[in-house]
Amino acid sequence: MASRRLRILVAKPGLDGHDRGAKIIARALRDAGVEVIYTGLHQTPEMVAEAALQEDVDAVGLSILSGAHMTLFPAVIEELHKRGVGDVVVFGGGIIPPEDIAVLRQAGVRAIFTPGATTQEIVDWVRSSVRPRHA
Amino acid sequence: MADAKKTWIEAVYPKSADRLPAYTTISDMAVDPVYMPDDLDAWSYERSLGHPGTYPFTRGAYPSMYRGKLWTMRQFAGFGTAEDTNERFKFLLSQGQTGLSTAFDMPTLMGYDADHPRALGEVGREGVAVSSLADMEALFADIPLDKVTTSMTVNCSASILLAMYFAMAERRGIGLDRLGGTIQNDMLKEFIAQKEWISPPEPSVRIIVDMIEFCAQQAPRWHPVSISGYHIREAGSTAAQELAFTLADGIGYVQAAVQRGLDVDRFAPRLSFFFNLHSDFFEEIAKLRAARRMWATIMRERFGAKNQRSLQLRTHCQTAGCSLTAQQPLNNIVRVAIQALAGVLGGTQSLHTNSMDETLALPSEPAVLVALRTQQIIAEETGVTNIVDPLGGSYAVEALTDRLEREAFAYIKRIDELGGIVRAIELGYPQKEIAEAAYRYQQQLDRGDKVMVGVNKYQQEHEPPLELLHISQDVERKQAQRVRERKQARNSAAVRAALAAVKRAASEGNNLMPPIIDAVKHEVTVGEISDLFRSVFGVYRDPAWI
Fold first, then answer.
1. Which CATH code fits A7-129?
2. Chain A within 8 Å of B360 (Cβ-Cβ)?
């Protein structure tokens, strides 16, 4: 049975303007056959969740290099829940110390990819861990 | 003679024994097995190099370089509250640093006060929180502004932060004409790479020209712009692109200032630059040498500058953040040392060396100390400072310098054809070139075609944890509270009048610096003036190209 293509929102929440990684991931996922929507920079958690809802995505990938990850990841998760799309998978990456990764996983972030992760690792993870939310 | 190299490579060089299928720089520039006199056929000492400190300055901006004066050791620092960073500043100065460099937090950089909803989670995390003059004064408490030079890395809110620095100096009885320092204030590269903006390119450039004009008249020792390639490279560009887009930005500013009616020789001497020091040793040295030669040529031939100091490219450099690894972070100390050495052999005027833990957090005290010591060891123990431009005349270095210059000029020509750098930015040209180069490099890393020790080769299963710098959640609460309290304590009539004056200057096209300096003296905040920019100049939105 054919399932529809995965839809993933790649987002840059907060004020952080470092988009090199986010753009590379977006492109790698797209090249791997995923439908990717890239939000661009400076998104509030509300804007990210709203886009996730409107675009009906299966997962949201957040890229945060500003140190604000402990606030922004949970905030996005909360905003997704508020909109009734709490089943959207949240993952991400950036400059995130190991001790924070554990806390974020507890808060519901499914995976965190830090510097050194290959695009293939991320694509493989998405393929194995993200399912289309609708048929 | 021209065939000697070709003959040798074909007849003698054992190509079949090569370890790798191709030899390229990290920027994918193919390099020859060896360089010979043939490679410098079109080259002449006088035309291509000149003596150190002489046009075209390839060998260095000054005749004696580090024999006369070492580069400024200027570690970029900032986190938490002004008091936290003031302590780090003093620590670094006590350890032998010779200049200050300020990292502000994202809200400050983006024009938001610590109590703004957009600042949530971000206060003090990527740099120091500064919302008003009181913060600036706390930041530089007990620091002799007339004896030490300060660099401030801030762009779209640069006018406000510079105004605060100037207001602070005035309050301490230090004339602006005695103040030395730099403010980054390079918006063109923001649209291209670092992506910290408030308003679109045109009004952003207008503000920069206001600051160039103001400084030329009132603060002639101050560098009102640091034309930057660092961030362009961090975003994933090649060395040639870094060189080209940086100089193209420089051309854009000179053009804008000249269009304003400023005499090029009055402001050009205080334009400064900021380049990246990436891992490919000779490529980086060649890049800096090419930069000096190119800028000298551009200033003389394109803009008719006559003052020798208008032709001299002087630069700060920082070792490449993007080359550091989260895996086996001690290795980063080695990377930084080699990159720093390239900067010194390339003739930098000022240097920041990264800390080994910066792929995980802001620098801890022990880590930044090693980074500073790296510079001191290079300066005191290696002997490289005893000879000016010691690599000058090397066939390889000169060939690479020529090559980078050629490639960079080709990009600049393309930008000219598009209608100049602002137009090129609107079209997304530099941004897309960079994204393309970044993606290509990532693919090379993923395939193992390019190696990152500890990441795709020589990995380690278990690594001991590092003691990282932590920013307490308290910082945000405290700072937001301060901002609220100060806003309450102000003379609101004076604040309103001051803001109105800034608005008038903004709308009527008068120099923004005097009214902003006046406003900050009344504790008008970064956020308030930035909001003014938003309303008068508009808000720029990320085109979000992938």
1. 3.40.50.280
2. yes
Q: What is the dihedral of CA B84, B208, B347, B194, to 10 degrees?
A: 60
Full strand arrangement of the beta sheet holding B222-223 = B76-77, B100-103, B150-153, B181-183, B222-223
Q: What is the pLDDT of residues B353-409, one digit of tens each?
A: 999 999 988 999 999 999 999 999 999 999 999 999 999 999 999 999 999 999 999
Chain B residues 462-491 with a CB less than 8 Å from chain A: 465, 468, 471
CATH 3.20.20.140 assigned to domain B63-447? The reply is no
Q: Residue for token digits 């975003």?
A: B235
Q: Which of A59, A32, A49 is nearest to A132 (CA)?
A: A59
Write out pLDDT tens, residues B220-253. 999 999 999 999 999 999 999 999 999 999 999 9
Q: What is the DSSP string of A37-71?
A: EE--S-B-HHHHHHHHHHTT-SEEEEEE-SS-HHH
Residues 74-93 of A with CB under 8 A from B: 75
ipTM beyond 0.85? Answer: yes
Nearby residues of B384 by Cβ (< 8 Å), 6 or more positions away: B341, B344, B345, B378, B390
Q: Are A39 and A12 in contact (CB under 8 A)?
A: yes
Residue environment code for A20-29, b if the CB has 16+ CB neighbours within 10 A, otherwise e: bbbbbbbbbb
Q: Is the omega angle on the peptide bond into residue B203 within 30 degrees of 0, that is, cis?
A: no
* Residue B512 per-residue DSSP state: S
Smallest CA–CA distance, residue A1 to chain B, in Å, is 32
Contact A118 B445 (CB under 8 A): yes
B195 vs A: CB within 8 A: yes
How near does any CA of chain B get to the CA of A84, in Å? 23
Identify which of A30, A114, A118 has the shortest CB distance to residue B446.
Answer: A118
Q: Would you kindly state where each structural domain of chain B is located, as residue ranges?
A: 63-447
How many H helices and E strands in chain A?
Answer: 5, 5
| Count of beta carbons in the 10 Å neighbourhood of residue B514 | 16
Per DSSP bridges, beta strands A59-64 and B350-352 are unpaired
Q: Do A115 and B439 touch (CB under 8 A)?
A: no
Q: For chain B, what is the total number of helices (H) and then of strands (E)?
A: 22, 10
Has this prediction a pTM greater than 0.95?
yes
Q: Is A54 on the interface with B (CB under 8 A)?
A: no
CA distance linking residue B235 with residue A19, whole number of Å: 8
In A, which residues are within 8 Å of B361 by CB distance?
67, 95, 97
pLDDT tens digits along B114-166: 999 999 999 999 999 999 999 999 999 999 999 999 999 999 999 999 999 99
Please, are residues A95 and B361 in contact by the beta-carbon 8 Å criterion?
Answer: yes
Tokens for B48, please give them. 């291509």
Q: Which residue has the tokens 């008091």?
A: B83
Residue B151 · residue B99 · CB < 8 Å: yes
Pick from B126, B195, B359: which is nearest to A19 by CB?
B195
CB atoms within 10 A of CB A54: 11
The number of residues making up chain B comes to 546
